[in-house]
Predict the 3D structure of the following.
Amino acid sequence: MNYIRFVREQMKLIADRDPAMRSKWEVFLYPSFRAVLAYKRSHRLYLKGKYFRARRISQRAAHKTGIEIHPGAEIGEGFFVDHGHGVVIGETTVIGKNVTLYQGVTLGGTGKEKGKRHPTLGDNVMVSAGAKILGSFTIGDNSKIGAGSVVLKEVPPNSTVVGVPGHVVKRNNIRIPYEDLNQTDLPDPVQNEMDQLRESLNELKKAENESRIKDGQKIWSEE
């Protein structure tokens, strides 16, 4: 691995995705930088069958950064973890290009599978804070996983997923528009359901009031 090239790539990557970065030299302070650097070293050892040495590097990095990346995971270019504390990436995880994870994200297994037991993330996927993706399935390219979601099944490309369990609430940008790294402007299915119930209740009250007015007018005319 060319260390100088890696540093330059990380400088540009973090500057593009984190508005808090004021100086390119801050890259050395980012947990993501140190965690990914350690991952690259441990992954090379893992591929050579030197599992103990690989795990030792990854565990030391996890202790220092709060980001635990198993050396067996496959991670593409442009990978970035913002803040990062509490992030866990399992052994058979596959991550595409230009993927962004936020703090508290888990890419884990269900404990019931052998072999490929962790998720595959396509290119340009964003996983918001606290989200859990558990199992061996694919999150399609250009998809967003909302904060705190628990995803247990495959997600088509160009989708937005929210909720527990997670489900698709938008696909191919049809519904609420959002910016690429905006974790908050996502559809809220619970709030939408409450709004619909509130609207139905208001309609029932309106119908009841109209019925009472008509009954009162009828009684008055009979008298």
Observations:
- Residues 7 and 92 are 26 Å apart (CA to CA).
